[in-house]
From TrEMBL:
Domain DUF218: 64-194
UniProt entry keywords in alphabetical sequence: Membrane, Transmembrane, Transmembrane helix
Taxonomic source organism: Cohnella kolymensis
Transmembrane segments: 24-46
Coiled-coil positions: none
Name of this chain's protein: DUF218 domain-containing protein
Keyword Kinase: no
InterPro entries: Cell_Envelope_Assoc (IPR051599), DUF218 (IPR003848), Rossmann-like_a/b/a_fold (IPR014729)
Length: 217
């Protein structure tokens, strides 16, 4: 029986390896294209969000919910102050008569929860303490809105205006709808202190994570 020469066998093996390598490269390229398309789609959803309903439309609610962010030395960070200042403006305009502030304890040396720091800031601006309810346990946007909804239900408040930054609004609106807010009303503010390109890019990842978690709720 004639045996295949070793050189021919090596040549055939080499050709097969090249074919497999090309296939793997095509699969990798296709995967990267899908990831790029996904990220681009989410990015345009994030940057295109302008509030629900659109900015300029009249909204009224039983309460305003300010989504938490970090404290610095037990005081709202500059970015969080922007959210609170915008919420305070809406409060003064009569959009809602009370607040729910959200957020647990940061691991950055703060001894107050985000909610406590936010309440103190609003009280210093002239909001009566009894007009500010606190969720001091939440650790994520999902928990912010879930626990705030529980506070609303306990008090018989039917509607809310959610206040956050532009880059955060689309995900907040989707979470609010999932949790059961009806109607979903989100008001967003620009930022003069945050590195918005960084936060928009980070939000693509956060939105992706949320949509994955949403599948198991």
């Amino acid at each position: 029986m004639r045996q295949e020469r070793p050189s021919a066998s090596r040549s055939l093996s080499g050709r097969r390896s090249k074919i497999y390598l090309r296939r793997l490269m095509w699969i990798a390229a296709a995967g990267l294209a899908v990831i790029a398309a996904w990220c681009a789609t989410l990015y345009f959803i994030i940057v295109g969000f302008d509030g629900v309903p659109k900015q300029g439309a009249a909204v009224r609610a039983d309460t305003g919910i300010v989504l938490g962010a970090s404290l610095w030395n037990n005081e709202p960070s500059p970015g969080l102050k922007e959210r609170l200042d915008y919420a305070f403006q809406l409060y003064k305009e009569g959009v809602f008569p009370r607040f729910i502030v959200t957020g647990g304890l940061d691991h950055n040396g703060s001894t107050l929860t985000e909610a406590e720091g936010m309440r103190n800031y609003l009280v210093e601006k002239g909001v009566p303490g009894e007009a500010v309810s606190m969720d001091t346990q939440s650790r994520s946007t999902y928990e912010n809105l879930l626990f705030a909804k529980q506070i609303m239900d306990e008090n018989g408040w039917a509607s809310a205006v959610i206040v956050t930054h532009n880059y955060h609004g689309a995900r907040a609106a989707d979470i609010a709808e999932t949790v059961g807010y009806d109607p979903v009303q989100v008001r967003v503010t620009d930022s003069e202190v945050l590195m918005i390109p960084y936060h928009e890019a980070r939000e693509v990842l956060a939105f992706t994570k949320w949509l994955g978690n949403k599948l198991f709720l």
